[in-house]
Design brief:
By secondary structure, this protein is mainly alpha-helical. The strands form 2 sheets. It has a two-stranded parallel ribbon. A hairpin with a 5-residue loop joins β3 and β4. α7 packs antiparallel against α8.
Length: about 220
């Protein structure tokens, strides 16, 4: 959040608005202190029902989505680091993403980083029935957890992860609500290592310039 605050201060006068969405099942209890400490001047929301993750197929944090002035997504969810504090862990340099973001802010829909309709459809496709079922299982688990039935919630959290193993947000929230080693036989970092380590865990954003289209330059 501090990195985004700096970007917002630099670019807010160029028609940039930022909306951050914390994905914490315990809502303001867990996310509130972090938001208060950061004291952002942009809009900060808390999505304790994970609606953003479920509707837009967001599987990790930090994730960024670009939305133009007409409310249309022009780049779908992707890893979005805007500083290098976690570079040793992620293996990602923030400079290419920041450069692309500035290009879009300057050129709007004429930016080479605005995706074509075909690429957007490919990136946003979430019609896999297992993804839909996983979201339902997560919702059941959250309902049971908040009703005071953690032991009954755990099987649903496990099923959500089985159905959609690519969702690190599902893992992160499930493990944070109980003793991960005891209830799941693993920990978050052990899962990261199984996936190939932190530098695999964070897939770099696809910043290939858009193909030549009407009104654009390659």
């Amino acid at each position: 959040m501090p990195g985004w605050q700096a970007i917002y201060q630099q670019l807010k006068d160029k028609n940039l608005e930022i909306v951050s969405v914390a994905q914490d099942t315990n809502g303001i209890k867990d996310a509130g202190p972090w938001i208060t400490a950061a004291n952002p001047t942009y809009t900060a929301l808390i999505d304790e029902k994970h609606l953003v993750s479920k509707l837009y197929n967001m599987v990790n944090v930090p994730t960024g989505v670009w939305i133009n002035e007409q409310g249309k997504i022009v780049r779908p969810n992707e890893v979005a680091f805007v500083d290098d504090r976690f570079k040793n862990f992620s293996g990602l340099d923030s400079a290419p993403y920041l450069s692309a973001l500035r290009d879009w802010i300057e050129k709007s829909d004429q930016s080479i980083y605005v995706m074509s309709e075909d690429r957007l459809r490919e990136k946003l496709a979430v019609n896999d029935p297992q993804v839909v079922l996983a979201a339902a299982e997560l919702g059941l688990g959250e309902h049971l957890y908040k009703s005071g039935h953690l032991n009954d919630a755990i099987p649903h959290f496990k099923e959500a992860q089985r159905l959609y193993p690519k969702s690190w947000n599902y893992k992160r929230q499930a493990y944070a609500l109980s003793d991960a080693k005891r209830d799941y036989g693993t920990t978050f970092m052990e899962e990261v290592e199984k996936a190939g380590g932190s530098k695999v865990y964070y897939a770099p954003p696809d910043l290939r310039p858009a193909a030549t289209e009407k009104g654009k330059k390659p």
